[in-house]
Amino acid sequence: IWQASSLRRVRALQADLVARTDAGIAIVVILDEDVAPPAGSAGVDLGPWTAAETTEWLAAVLCRRPAEALAKALFAATGGVPLFCEEILVRAASDGPLDALDAQSLGQLALPGRAAEAIAQRVAALGSDERAALEALAVLREAPLSLLSATEPRATAAVVAKLCRSAMAMVVSDGRIALGRATAAAIDVEPERGKSLHLAAFTALDSSG
Fold first, then answer.
1. How far apart are CA 209 and CA 207, in angstroms?
2. Tens of pLDDT along 130-146?
3. Dihedral (CA of 188, 111, 73, 164) sign
């Protein structure tokens, strides 16, 4: 999803490179990060925006510096996924002028159905390790990697990094990991699984003192 939205940045880069060189530029888009890029190629990160980049984009849309709370609410709601940022502001604009948008009203907005459905499809296609890590995050809400891994051993640093690159999880304050709001809505933890994760988290906290 976000990869397609970010292609505009790649096309702009391509146009700039072609203008500066005589050689043609070929773009290869790889949606599966486990697939190695072609030999001799240069990579362009199409990951989600950072909180700062999300704020910069919002400022450009509003033609003014947004309130810090509003920018944080947008990042929390979208995980910095460009397409989701666009979709949620389109939704907000349908309810009234964007000049009147504040953090509370934005926080109450849900992503449009097509975006939410796309997230659900991506969650359903995850491997067992990634799914397990998201379930643990759904129970913990927000946690340092050490607690997350102690609660669910399959939530390794590599697995969490992969989820963050795909905007299904995000790094928040003090390096703690959290689910994006949109992803959280697509995670349904079975009751017994939830109890097991709660117990593992309590055990980890108790043993750490």
1. 5
2. 999 999 999 998 899 99
3. positive
End-to-end CA distance of the chain: 42
Give CA–CA dist 76/167, Å, rounded: 11
Strand 177-179 and strand 142-143: pairing? Answer: antiparallel
- CA distances 178 to 38, 40, 137, 199, Å, are 33, 36, 6, 19
Q: Which of 69, 73, 68 is nearest to 88 (CA)?
A: 73
Q: What is the pLDDT of residues 71-122, one digit of tens each?
A: 988 888 887 878 788 888 888 887 788 878 888 888 777 666 666 677 777 7
Q: What is the pLDDT of residue 5?
A: 46
pTM of structure: 0.59
Q: Please work out, in degrees rounded to the nearest 5, the angle formed at the alpha carbon of residue 44 by the alpha carbons of 42 and 45.
A: 140
- For residue 141 the two structure tokens come to 């809400």
CB atoms under 10 Å from CB of 109, counted, come to: 18
Sign of CA dihedral 171, 139, 184, 66: negative
Residues near 181 by beta carbon (within 8 Å), at least 6 away in sequence: 76, 77, 78, 79
Q: Are 78 and 182 in contact (CB under 8 A)?
A: yes
Give the tokens for residue 60.
Answer: 């450009």
Mean pLDDT of the chain: 79
Give the Cα separation of 91 and 85 in Å (integer): 10
CB 55 within 8 A of CB 76: no
